[in-house]
Specification:
It is a single chain. The protein has 2 helices and 20 strands. It is mainly beta and 310 residues long. The protein has a 15-stranded antiparallel beta sheet that branches. A hairpin with a 4-residue loop joins strand 18 and strand 19. The protein starts with a helix and ends in a 6-residue tail after the last strand.
Length: 310
């Protein structure tokens, strides 16, 4: 399949998904800041934030009215979704909105929000919100150290800055970023890099992302871009469906990789379980087939920072 055909398919699929997503957004807009406070005695209070000072948190709750809560009695508190406040059914701020599984979204971490993420024990990532728009991350893989018998091979690592632009809050966000990579057995530091722009349509819980990325090796930009089409759909407070699709250019066309997964989200930890598939060409019989690798990719994420809780 040619690169132009792939581009047309991406546009068609993304247009359909974006229109579908806008329909969802029209029925569920998120505006005011709503807080869920978990007390040290085990009770929970949800309400619209009126005031947050050094000693007290003042909320306007639909069930008990306006209440002033002594912060010494609060275990932690964080944001929840306004359109779900009436249900008071345990929804809370999504700590995974900045990415799907691997690929980024147009959303960034807010100031003082951070997370640590681990995939398959060997890939480690830490990201932190410097401002509400600028996020910086560091990724380090441990497989090289485990495979090295002499121990003199340094692991691959990457620095991942991202700047987020909220074109329209909870409807359309743009993310501009890079993956600045240092690989073992290379002559120069950070000579493999990736520059990307991603457009995310939808809220932090339900969105579709369309991205384009260019590789940069030793200062030379790749001739053709890689396209991504991804989406996250949070169907309950703790369960989300995720998909990522990469379209990588090759000399005789493009290679597509598809990832499908679920995410189990908690306030203090989240788990990702996903599988990856791709089309395999059989050169001997001039045939192709789709290979879905049955071994799940497992990831775990721990949010941290006073931007999440206080």
């Amino acid at each position: 399949m040619s690169a132009s055909t792939i581009s047309k398919k991406i546009f068609q699929y993304s247009l359909f998904l974006v229109l579908f997503l806008f329909t969802i957004q029209l029925s569920a807009q998120q505006e005011a800041l709503v807080i869920e406070a978990e007390m040290k005695d085990g009770t929970t209070i949800i309400g619209t934030l009126v005031e947050d000072n050094e000693t007290h948190l003042i909320l306007d709750s639909k069930t008990i009215g306006r209440v002033s809560i002594d912060k010494m009695k609060i275990r932690f508190y964080n944001r929840v979704l306004k359109n779900l406040q009436a249900q008071e059914n345990g929804w809370f701020e999504n700590p995974n909105a900045t990415r799907n599984v691997f690929s980024p979204t147009g959303y960034g971490l807010r100031r003082n929000e951070g997370y640590y993420q681990n995939f398959m024990l060997g890939i480690n990532q830490v990201s932190y919100g410097i401002t509400d728009r600028f996020t910086i991350g560091l990724t380090l893989e441990a497989f090289t150290l485990l495979a090295s018998t002499s121990g003199n091979i340094s692991p691959a690592f990457a620095i991942t800055p991202k700047y987020s632009i909220p074109v329209k809050k909870d409807v359309y966000n743009i993310g501009v970023g890079a993956m600045i990579v240092n690989l073992p057995h290379t002559d120069q530091l950070f000579d493999w890099n990736l520059l990307y722009v991603v457009n995310t349509f939808g809220s932090r819980d339900r969105n579709v992302s369309v991205g384009v990325a260019y590789g940069l090796k030793e200062g030379t930009l790749a001739n053709r871009p890689t396209f991504t089409l991804a989406g996250t759909f949070r169907i309950s407070p703790k369960l989300s469906l995720i998909t990522e699709n990469w379209f990588i250019p090759e000399r005789d066309g493009s290679q597509a990789f598809n990832l499908f997964g679920i995410r189990i989200t908690g306030k203090k930890v989240s788990w990702d379980f996903s599988v990856i598939g791709t089309k395999i060409d059989n050169g001997f019989k001039s045939e192709s087939y789709y290979l879905l690798i049955p071994i799940p990719i497992v990831g775990v994420t721990f949010p941290f920072g006073k931007g999440w809780t206080s």
